[in-house]
Structures are given as C-alpha cells and as structure tokens.
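Whether sequence alone determines local backbone shape is best considered at the level of individual chains. The sequence in question and its structure tokens are set out directly beneath this paragraph.

===
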Amino acid sequence: MTKRETRGGIPAEIRADATAIKVSGYAAVFNQEANIGGYFREIILPGAFRKALANSDVPFLINHDGLPLARTRSGTLKLTEDDHGLKIDTDLDAADPDVMRIVPKMKRGDLDKMSFAFRAVVQRWDDTQDPPLRTVEELELYDVSIVTEPAYDGTEIGLRSLDEARKETRRQHNATAFARRKAASEAKFRRIS
C-alpha cells in the first residue's frame, strides 16, 4: 500500500483585515510535470481530487502537522477543483493564538507556499522514460497546508512509491503469465483426455 505523500510549492495569497486572515491559492496544479527528487516525474490530472472532496474531511495545517487552523467539515475551509487545480479558500480566525503565531511569518513571506498530503488511489507509471513518469488520476486527500519547504525536495517517500509501483507491476505480470500457462496446460489436458 502506498504511503502518505506530500507535494507542494505553490505560493499562497495572504490578506489580513481586523477579524480574519484570508488565505487563498492552489494546493495542487493540474497537468504540470514535477520532478520528484530525480527518481520520477509526476503529473496530477484534472479530476484527481473529485472523489476525495466529496468524501473527505480535510484540515488546513501548518507544515502538515499540528492542530487544524480550518477544516472542510466545519465550513471554515473551502476546497474546489477547477481547471487549474485544487483551489483553497479560508478565513483564519485572527483571534486564534495559533493563527497569530504565524501571521508575521506569512506577511513577511517566510511561510507562503501551499502543499497537500495524499495517497494515490489510481495511478499509471511509464517506465519507458528516464526518469519514469507517474500520472495520478485519483487520490485520497489527507490535508492541505501552508509550508516553509515544499515536499518536492523530499525524495524518500517518492522513491518508496516508485519501488512499490514497480513491485505491483511485476506481481500483475507474474499473475497474468501464470494464468496463461495454467489455461494452456488445461487446454492441453482436455485435448489429451
């Protein structure tokens, strides 16, 4: 089973007024190839978030960790999939101590990139290219986050994903070859009998 992965690096738009810190932007962008540490390349297809958005309670976190600043279940986080990608809109509570702790960092641009944590549910791999190309068609969404360092720099999880995909491809190939040999053997046995 593929482990939880994170991707990101997309700038967020941050605005403040007297009562709220407004954060909007894209946690993911469609059809843009990303190099995952040189181990493989990845593309997220339009529609990849459709089922996840219909069935998930997604929190908005800092660096994919800690208490939620907002979440879809409470209505404080709005996630939509449009032609460009996974759009995020939230009004963070300006009186929340966790929010107030990060506002100066957000205003200075120290904390300004968006990211998302996921598990690929439907994916295709093209190993004929170097590095291989992974196309994510459907995923399970765990969180969206504002981050200091986007996960495209983190290659360990990417390497595990590639290894697991290759093992699954080999298992499927071996199962298909076994089924063909068994069918041929049974057909030969029926002709002899």
Residues 152-162 have pLDDT under 50 and may be disordered.
